[in-house]
Amino acid sequence: MREQDPVFYDALFRQKRKGGKWRVMPSPVLEGPVADTHAHLQMLADPACELARAGAHGVAFVETIVDPAEDGFATFDDLPLWLMEAARDLKVMEEEDDGAAGIVAAPAVPHVRIAAGVHPHNAKDWTPELKAALRERLRDRRVSAVGEIGLDYHYDLSPRDVQQEVFRAQIRLAKEAGLPIALHMREAHDDGFAILKEEGFPEAGTLLHCFNLDAAEVARWVEASCYIAFGGPLTFKKADEVREAAALVPADRLLTETDSPYMTPEPVRGTDCGPAHTIYTADVLCEVRGADTLEARAVLLAQLYENAQRLLNRKPTCWQRERGLIERLG
User: Fold this and answer.
1) CA 86, 87, 90: angle at the middle one, nearest 5?
2) Which distant-in-sequence residues (6+ apart) come within 8 Å of 139 by Cβ?
């Protein structure tokens, strides 16, 4: 069980100091809304508060990840309450703000969609029953991707052949559902790319989550028309190769994310991450891409947000609409 930081019910960002002390940190001021395309809301100490803080800082869209093998499907039931409580919390944050938090004008709770899939760590738990349950949940119109799925050869918490088998099964499931996939690849990019070439990249799209390698690696994923998501590692002091890769990705394939509660960006690295922290990564991405004027930043941020909307905030697929039709007729 992760030891979580205390919850602060305001819109401020804090840096952890020695002796249990916290220092309030300034936050970037962005020229448009941003999207967190990968967050684990159910792992946060207070998902509603984090959604409120995200809205206060202009994070207008969040894709939350559900792994039925590890999390079950509680997020599907809990999300409406989180959103309702987030609206209440955001109102309080606005009322109590003294200008130090940098709350955006007319803040709103982010729109939240769901990606569901079995992480490679949990591939060993894949069963016909789990597959059937996941397939049924993908019918939910709030679901806009299958993920995070893929391969992880760093920890090898599931045998590699099992990881590969389950990865293939979920690629096929995504194709059946007409949904994009969100990939987790760690020290397994060669095998993962080979499997995708054999199975075929889904027409609905492929998102390579948490890219933290170099320009040479990113090139083949871009050539395969994948979206590349950058989170906290883009801001890390010793991650020049990640920033070089981010500079080369076509603007219409770039995404921002957090991987909350992990991968907190600088300058608040070492604390729990929330969707609001997307603004730090987006700010650095503007710098990396040479967007050094207000107009250029606004154009890039608009493109990043449009990318997330196009890939993840999609209309229900034909496959998802079928269930609604069957339920109405039945």
Assistant:
1) 80
2) 177, 319, 320, 323
Classify strands 13-16 and 22-25 as parallel, antiparallel or unpaired: antiparallel
* Token pair in block for residue 87: 């609206």
Tokens standing for residue 32? 């448009």
3-class DSSP state of 259: coil
Tokens 């603007």 map to which residue? 251
Q: How many helices (H) and strands (E) does the chain have?
A: 10, 10
Give 33-60 as a DSSP string: -EEEEEE-GGGSS-HHHHHHHHHHTTEE
CA–CA–CA angle 40, 44, 45 (5° rounding): 170
- 119 token code pair: 């992480």
List strand residue ranges (DSSP E) for 175-258, in order.
181-186, 206-208, 227-230, 254-256
Only one residue has tokens 């890390």, namely 236
Q: Which pair of structure tokens corresponds to residue 167?
A: 């990865």
Cα–Cα nearest to 161, from 136, 126, 111, 129: 126
CA distance 86 to 101: 17
Question: What would the pLDDT profile of 35-90 be if each residue is shown by its tens digit?
Answer: 999 999 999 999 999 999 999 999 999 999 999 999 999 999 999 999 999 999 99
For residue 267, whether the previous peptide bond is cis, meaning omega lies within 30 degrees of 0, is yes
State pLDDT tens for residues 210-255.
Answer: 999 899 999 999 999 999 999 999 999 999 999 999 999 999 999 9
pTM of the full predicted structure? 0.97
* CB contact at 8 A, 273 and 258: yes
Q: How many residues does the chain have?
A: 330
